[in-house]
């Protein structure tokens, strides 16, 4: 057994992050590596969901296997449009997963987020929600999306926010306002610039 190595998935993350951060990476490679990171983020988020023991009967002479299954239902909610780029990774990990949409845009005059649209599963209050948006800058749009989910009855601790890049400021805003929401990110950037 000493020659058996269990895959250490996080070791791939620095390599893929380096590829999307490089100014020499072409568009096709950027999309490829971004999709790979999205898949790793979804897999990591799923590791934080509770599971229940489940006895599985195998096709080998009726043997059983002590497995697990997710405790409760899962759905994805993408913050449109950028969050939609993360949906495929979720579908690759969870077949037939329900996906909702929230459209939030920054008001040009006030620079504050404004809700335009939401289409969510009717039973979302009973689900674990993976909120999808590739970037966490100030957190304004994502915080509003959390408000929408809470308004639909989703408990704060059942929300996981997945993003490729998080700013320290955005993560701090989240921790202060919604300390029970888990953020799953590929990396935390140095900070916001004057354009935020």
Which features does this protein show?
Rossmann fold; 2 domains; 7-stranded mixed beta sheet; two-stranded antiparallel ribbon; 5 helices; globular
Can you describe this structure?
- By secondary structure, the protein is an alpha/beta fold.
- It folds into two domains: 10-66; 73-188, Rossmann fold (3-Layer(aba) Sandwich).
- The protein has helices at 13-21, 27-46, 87-93, 140-151, 168-177; strands spanning 51-57, 64-70, 73-80, 98-106, 113-119, 127-132, 135-136, 159-166, 182-188.
- Strands 3, 4, 5, 6, 7, 8 and 9 form a seven-stranded mixed β-sheet that branches. The protein has a two-stranded antiparallel ribbon with strand order 1-2.
- Helix 4 (140-151) links the parallel strand 7 (135-136) and strand 8 (159-166).
- The relative contact order is 0.14.
